[in-house]
Design goal:
The protein is an alpha+beta fold. It has helices at residues 4-16, 22-31, 57-66, 77-87, 134-139, 182-221, 224-229, 239-245, 288-299, 331-336, 347-367, 416-429, 440-451, and strands spanning 39-40, 46-55, 70-71, 93-103, 106-110, 144-149, 155-158, 163-170, 235-236, 254-255, 264-268, 274-279, 309-315, 318-324, 382-384, 390-392. This is C-type lectin receptor-like tyrosine-protein kinase At1g52310.
């Protein structure tokens, strides 16, 4: 038994879908080349159209010329029958392209397209083709043109008579009303395809270029390696941004303090908040990833008595740290050079500074895991806010602990991260409580790890 799908296919092929033969497909394809309202000729190379109304032969020819064609040239019995059927739709006779002309050899018939030739088998007795004598030629008017009707072959009538007419277009050689020869359409399709592909390629390139530009800008402002190392609460600044907010690190924006590291400058962010931008000495041995890693560890320490880090910048060895702005600046200024308009620190204020400073140190020693030892607590590293509470700065001086023989600018300078690990190991070995000190086997292992290139 047939399956349901097979039955459905048989119904489609045998019942409601017509079977189209290859020859019919060819006819349909060729008909498509004719303009709307025109019929394909029997030889499939011309398009015919019956024009209703009555005009003289000359008026009919001019009308056909306006279509880009001419009056029909009939050169075979098939074309004659085809023209007779067209003409029989509305009129008894229709103009076609033949016209009699007088020559030295007698009367000859020519066709509008100058390529068709009269087929003598189509000629009726009205055509005096054998009239060559002078008396015969004088007895016949030379103003004769060709008509076709449904009852006879081609016959001649005076050209100033009025009839309907049949126009003809040559499919293979010309374009009429946007119906072109196949070669023209192929060329048009190829050119259109090239234009489309080129446009698509340009659009894709522009989109890729814009995306690449955005990525480059994003990498410039926020390095991917840094994104994995820095906390989400602070920012990797671009050098141009820092120069903008500090007025190109102008002297008017320089803050008093330790200038050995490169100076600290006040800056104003776009949101209106003030920051302090610390400019570190240019480093040729610390890479960007190491710098971000080191600053990132400090930036993750949050306490009311620790100066908060807002962000940093690394640009080809130029290093910057962006801190929150602490109004009254470093402690050493108040101890040795009281600012104009200020007053000396009395006992109560000094006790507040000592207490809040101790709170910050205690946080580093007891609350942070692993414990952090500052190792650079001095008056210039302590900043005072508007209520003279102490804020301890981090910022990053391990290379200064090195022996001068291996300190910068020596080419054998270790990375800051490696120095920090050695310092931490030394600090662990000097704990007062013996149980807090590491075993020497652990120390050996750590040193071996650090010694590896």
């Amino acid at each position: 038994m047939d399956s349901g799908h097979q039955k459905m296919r048989r119904l489609r092929s045998n019942w409601w879908l017509p079977t189209i033969k290859p020859a019919e497909v060819t006819v349909l394809w060729l008909t498509a080349w004719c303009p709307s309202g025109w019929d394909i000729s029997p030889n499939k190379s011309e398009c015919f159209k019956l024009i209703w109304g009555s005009k003289s032969w000359n008026e009919s020819e001019n009308h056909c010329l306006s279509y880009g064609g001419h009056l029909a040239g009939l050169t075979s019995s098939e074309e004659l029958s085809f023209a007779q059927k067209l003409c029989g739709q509305t009129a008894s006779s229709c103009w076609v392209g033949g016209r009699m002309t007088n020559s030295t050899t007698g009367f000859v018939w020519k066709w509008s397209d100058n390529t068709s030739y009269l087929n003598q088998s189509l000629v009726s007795e009205s055509f005096p083709l054998n009239c060559t004598s002078l008396s015969c030629r004088n007895s016949i008017s030379a103003d004769l043109c060709t008509v076709v009707n449904g009852t006879a072959d081609l016959v001649a009538e005076r050209c100033n008579n009025s009839h309907a007419f049949i126009c003809m277009l040559d499919v293979e050689k010309k374009c009429y009303h946007m119906h072109c020869h196949r070669e023209y359409l192929i060329i048009l399709a190829v050119v259109s395809g090239l234009i489309l592909c080129t446009t698509l390629a340009v659009v894709i390139w522009l989109l890729a270029y814009r995306r690449s530009k955005k990525r480059r800008k994003s990498r410039k402002l926020s390095n991917p390696a840094a994104s994995a190392l820095v906390p989400p609460s602070w920012k990797v600044f671009a050098n141009e941004e820092l120069r903008s907010i500090t007025k190109n690190f102008s002297e008017g924006n320089r803050l008093l303090g330790d200038a050995k590291t490169g100076g600290t400058y006040s800056g104003l962010l776009p949101d209106g908040s003030r920051v302090a931008v610390k400019r570190l000495k240019r480093s040729s041995f610390q890479r960007k990833k190491e710098f971000y890693s080191e600053i990132g560890r400090v930036a993750r320490l949050h306490h009311p008595n620790l100066v908060a880090i807002k962000g940093c910048c690394y640009d080809h060895g130029d290093r910057y740290i962006v801190y929150e702005f602490i109004v009254n600046g470093p402690l050493d200024r108040w101890l040795h050079h009281v600012p104009r308009g200020g007053r000396s620190l009395d006992w109560a204020m000094r006790m507040k500074i000592a207490t809040t400073l101790a709170q910050g140190i205690a946080f580093l020693h007891d609350k942070v895991k692993p414990h952090v030892v500052h190792r650079d607590i001095r008056a210039s590293s302590v900043l005072l806010d508007e209520e003279f509470r102490a804020h301890l700065m981090g910022a990053h001086r391990y290379p200064e602990l090195l022996d001068p023989l291996i300190a910068p600018p020596s080419s054998d300078v270790p990375e800051a991260g490696a120095i920090q690990k050695v310092v931490d190991l030394v600090y662990a070995c000097t704990q007062h409580v013996p149980s807090m000190r590491p075993r020497m086997s652990h120390v050996v292992h750590q040193l071996q790890q650090l010694a590896q290139p």
